[in-house]
Amino acid sequence: MYKNLRWKALTIFVVLVVFSGLGVYPLLALRYGWPAPGWLQAKALKLGLDLKGGVQLDLRVNTDDAMRATTVATSEQLRESLTTSGITPGGVNVTAPTVFRVEGVPQDRDGQFRTAADEIASGNYDRNILGSGNYEFRMKPNIERDLREQTVDQTLQTIDRRVNALGVTEPTIARQQGERILVQMPGVSDVARAKEIMGKTAVLEFKLVEAGPGTKDDLLKQYNGTLPGDMELLPGSGQENGAFYVVKKIAPVNGQDLRVARPGLDENNQPAVMFELKSAGAQKFGKLSGENIGRYLAIVLDNRVVSAPKLEGRITDNGRISGGFTSESANDLALTLKSGALPASLTYLEERVVGPTLGADSIRSGLLASAAGLGLILVFMLIYYKLSGINAIVALIFNLIILLGLMAYIGATMTLPGIA
What we know:
- Helix content is 46%, strand content 25%.
- By secondary structure, it is α+β, with helices and mostly antiparallel strands.
- The strands form five sheets. Strands 9, 10, 11, 12, 15 and 16 form a six-stranded antiparallel β-sheet that branches.
- Helix 1 crosses helix 13 (389-410) and helix 5 (63-84) crosses helix 6 (110-121).
- It starts with a helix and ends with a helix.
């Protein structure tokens, strides 16, 4: 009988030591600076936003951006197809995020136009005849609904990758009703940088320079005040700040062709971003650079020309983006490019910042409340059950220690309601 009792006592002691070491000691070591190995600190119970402090953001995904981008791409593909077929319409214009118009189609080429339009847009757009050679293309309702859903889901995944790349411990990223996303980042102190990295669209494109650099007015004069429909005027940034460039709207190579992006140094030992392309992107980039040696290539980030180097030879899978970066901005750009471009911009609906002081006060208040509650239970047990209540008290304390140890082991997060 006594032998079994000794084994039970030993088992209880071992369980108490193990779970105290996992759930209780790391918290005390962190609080009072006691020694603790790295692997044990890594297993420490995670504290939620209300205890550790941090930031909570309520975002809305502007899905109209993705609708417009898709509509612009489709309209430009149709324009290029018509040009190849020798058809010159009066204009191809996007009039709404899901609508574009083709005007002035020659009557004698109407049949060829309809064939080209069916090949490019019939799957996603309904074609409406407006008369006099004018047509309206409107995105189909089911396509629009699916694309908006995909945009929010892709945005959620991209934000998740970027927040995790920032090293945030136990972030919460969840979709809310409609097109809203909730982001909680415990322990984040530089809120402005986190918002910039998380909300940067980071759309990277490589486009040939048709004219520039120059002032906006001077470049427009070269085209008699109006650019051709397949071209656009983009401002410079970084080293190219203050200059403008005329480039094609459609980019032969873009950020979706990226395989790797990392910070590095250029030939002047200045911070830059080095990149490598996927095999398909390398083929397109090789063709683009090989056929245009001597011309200038605009590296466009979020509709601004970061740099416009001269193509000295054929480039395939490696390249560099230079633009007057600091070390931090080069790191941030590499991070956002690696995580993928946001398909739409974000609007910050609400921002709540919880300071670490408030978190410490919450922990202190929670511990005091827990101790007071435990003390009251202890007194009640002793008064009502007398000495038999000690068993229940010991079991309750052991249960609490085991619970904290298990939460630390599985990586759970402690919050203020959890303390309660």
